[in-house]
Specification:
82 residues; alpha+beta; two-stranded antiparallel sheet; 3 helices; elongated
Length: 82
């Protein structure tokens, strides 16, 4: 797939790539890459489910609301010091 870029240049849109099995990556400057990634999710139920499960597992293993809240409070306190 090709996408017209500013200045009349044509570039090949890179295929969506897996990212640690928890998502897809698309170049922010190439909308066509996003189309490819989103179509892949829409058309491949098995891949979409695999990514969903892996992403959920990652959140459960890496996200701690209490720790994140404490860090956010610390940032606010530092930002509001006279």
């Amino acid at each position: 797939m090709h996408e017209q870029q500013p200045g009349g240049h044509r570039h090949r849109a890179p295929p969506a790539r897996g990212l640690s099995g928890t998502g897809l990556v698309a170049d922010v400057d190439l909308p066509l890459a996003w189309v490819v990634a989103l179509r892949r999710l829409a058309e491949d139920d098995k891949s979409a489910e695999t990514l969903r499960i892996a992403a959920r597992r990652w959140v459960e293993e890496n996200y701690d609301a209490h720790r994140n809240t404490a860090r956010l409070v610390q940032c606010f306190e530092e930002a509001t010091k006279p």
